[in-house]
């Protein structure tokens, strides 16, 4: 009797899995390059440390430091490119020596063909500048429902006087 119950359960499971797979269809793959424009200083700062540092300078390497960002994202590299999204990010410096941070990021599309959709990114972020950091795409909404993949982040330029940095992100995303 027990083997028959197991067989029936397996048949039911396979039927449900097959039905779910046919309903979702095949993955679509998208490769995109976007640019984060981060302003870490001045009256229009898009990144802050929580709580705000008394010195006025952000600390990207102090163990336990937490930063929050809401950066404009563009398709073009120029500062005055039309924003297509916002990069809403929480960074927590998670390595004792400050070399790694945990990131939780939502790429919230505000213009263009993906308007109203999001891409969710999470992972350990290597801040050493020796390698190009990579993080996992762990989900999404709208046109990126059930997304997965990866994103790389490469600092293109940084101005220590103004606190402005430009980061290029190449993403490979699979979704339904």
Automatic annotation (TrEMBL):
Its main location: secreted. Residues 1-20 form the signal peptide. It is found in: Secreted, Extracellular space, Apoplast. Keywords: Apoplast, Secreted, Signal. One of its GO terms (cellular component) is apoplast. One of its GO terms (biological process) is phenylpropanoid biosynthetic process. PANTHER family: NUCLEOPORIN-RELATED (PTHR21495). Homodimer. Belongs to the plant dirigent protein family. Dirigent proteins impart stereoselectivity on the phenoxy radical-coupling reaction, yielding optically active lignans from two molecules of coniferyl alcohol in the biosynthesis of lignans, flavonolignans, and alkaloids and thus plays a central role in plant secondary metabolism. This is Dirigent protein.
């Amino acid at each position: 009797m027990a083997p028959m119950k197991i067989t029936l359960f397996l048949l039911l499971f396979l039927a449900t899995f097959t039905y779910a797979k046919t309903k979702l269809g095949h993955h679509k793959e998208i490769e995109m390059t976007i640019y984060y424009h981060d302003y870490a200083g001045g009256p229009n700062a898009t990144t802050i440390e929580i709580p705000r540092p008394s010195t006025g300078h952000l600390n990207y390497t102090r163990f336990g430091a937490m930063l929050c960002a809401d950066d404009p994202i563009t398709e073009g590299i120029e500062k005055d490119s039309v924003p297509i999204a916002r990069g809403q990010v929480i960074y927590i410096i998670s390595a004792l020596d400050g070399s790694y941070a945990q990131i939780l990021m939502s790429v919230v599309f505000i213009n263009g063909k993906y308007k109203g959709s999001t891409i969710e990114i999470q992972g350990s972020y290597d801040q050493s500048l020796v390698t190009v950091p990579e993080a996992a795409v762990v989900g999404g909404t709208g046109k990126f429902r059930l997304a997965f993949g990866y994103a790389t982040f490469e600092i293109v330029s940084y101005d220590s006087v103004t606190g402005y940095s430009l980061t290029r992100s190449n993403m490979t995303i699979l979704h339904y």
